[in-house]
């Protein structure tokens, strides 16, 4: 299988490292940035199979950033990652173009366990909610 590139966007270095390590552990090549500004700079630098975006960025809304990625990279799978676990946040994430809504801290483990393969995780038709509740 060829390299699967993932962009992880999280303003908290520890949270970004945890997500990056989990994804790297199942074979993804991860790049981490800590701001919306840096994410925009990375947007078209390579083909991103998956973009993981924290909702609460210090320099912008993760939901707004997800909408920008969806418009620029329609084939990229987008996972919103947040500690916010409520219906409005879920609706906003999916309305912005997210394929997944993952509640930190345990949502990524559940997501990776539930998806049997990298190919299943990168299925653009998926709209699952993991974590929380």
Describe the protein's architecture and organization.
There is one protein chain. The chain has 133 residues and is of the alpha/beta class. It has a single domain, classed as Response regulator (Rossmann fold). Helix content is 39%, strand content 26%. It contains 6 helices and 8 strands, in the order E-H-E-H-E-E-E-H-E-H-E-H-H-E. It has helices spanning 13-25, 36-42, 62-72, 87-95, 107-114, 118-121; strands spanning 4-9, 28-33, 50-54, 56-57, 60-61, 77-82, 100-103, 128-130. The strands form 2 sheets. It has a 6-stranded parallel sheet with strand order 2-1-3-6-7-8, sandwiched between helices. Strand 4 and strand 5 form a beta hairpin. The protein starts with a strand and ends with a strand.
Strand order of the largest sheet: 2-1-3-6-7-8
Helix-strand string: EHEHEEEHEHEHHE
CATH architecture call? 3-Layer(aba) Sandwich
Helix count, DSSP H or I runs of 4 or more residues: 6
Output mean pLDDT. 84
Q: Distance between the terminal alpha carbons, to the nearest Å?
A: 35 Å
Report the CATH superfamily: Response regulator
Q: Based on the structure, what is the oligomeric state of the protein chains?
A: single chain
CATH topology: Rossmann fold
Quick structural overview:
With 133 residues, the chain is an alpha/beta fold.
């Amino acid at each position: 299988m060829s390299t699967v590139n993932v962009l992880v966007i999280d303003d908290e270095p520890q949270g970004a490292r945890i997500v990056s390590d989990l994804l790297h552990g199942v074979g993804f090549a991860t790049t981490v940035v800590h701001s919306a500004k840096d994410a925009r700079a990375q947007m078209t630098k390579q083909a991103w199979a998956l973009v993981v975006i924290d909702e609460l960025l210090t320099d912008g809304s993760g939901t707004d950033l997800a909408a920008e990625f969806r418009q620029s990279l329609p084939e990229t799978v987008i996972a919103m990652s947040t500690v916010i676990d409520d219906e409005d946040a879920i609706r906003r994430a999916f309305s912005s173009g997210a394929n997944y809504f993952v509640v930190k801290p345990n949502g990524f483990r559940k997501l990776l366990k539930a998806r049997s393969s990298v190919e299943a995780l990168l299925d653009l038709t998926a709209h699952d909610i993991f974590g929380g509740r």
